[in-house]
Design brief:
single chain; alpha+beta; Jelly Rolls; 11 strands; disordered N terminus
């Protein structure tokens, strides 16, 4: 499948992305017809962790069809599109937009495909629960206001997206994402 064959986003032909200094995390379960197109790429890195169904991702000239247990990472600045995979009934996935930490490059490098696309395939089933728990914690930490205790991790429910506004919330969310990257990369080797 070529990038031109992927559906357009429902909102616009060129979906905006968060700026690089912001951490945004979310959980979606989308049906056919859902898609995002960014002809200029994103300003931040995009991490997707598939928990069900199948997606279709294009970054520059490279592509992937992530299924359950696949971590796909898109570097900023490269045109990309993603959607529910061809023939799939849905695509259930966690996602995060943010800047990366310097150490993550070494963990992701063995999984480089091309054009800033990294695919960490088939993370072992025994690690998937912990990866999902880290994403749930990331979502909760991104919601922390800095007063009281951070919220407890819960299923995404009716509010599946959070933006980390304070520096402590941002750092905690990045710590959870760092756990995701390390678990996925170590487990897939």
């Amino acid at each position: 499948m070529t990038p031109e064959a992927l559906p357009e986003t429902a909102a616009a032909a060129a979906a905006p992305s968060p700026p690089p200094g912001v951490v945004v995390v979310g959980h979606f379960d989308r049906t056919p017809g859902y898609g995002v197109n960014r002809p200029g790429g994103a300003d931040s890195w995009l991490f997707t962790w598939t928990t069900g169904g199948r997606g279709q991702v294009r970054q520059g000239g490279a592509g992937a069809g992530p299924g359950a247990g696949d971590l796909v990472v898109l570097a900023p600045g490269v045109p990309h599109r993603y959607a529910v995979g061809p023939g799939a009934r849905h695509w259930r996935f966690w996602w995060a937009h943010c800047a990366t930490r310097p150490g993550w490059a070494a963990w992701l490098r063995p999984f480089a495909v091309d054009d800033g696309l990294y695919v960490v395939p088939r993370v072992p089933a025994g690690l998937r629960g912990r990866v999902e728990a880290a994403f749930r914690r990331m979502l909760a930490d991104a919601r922390w206001t800095g007063t009281g205790a951070p919220p407890a991790p819960e299923p995404p429910g009716d509010d599946p997206v959070a933006v980390a506004h304070g520096s402590a919330a941002r750092e905690l969310a990045l710590c959870a994402l760092e756990e995701v990257v390390l678990l996925a990369a170590a487990g897939a080797r």
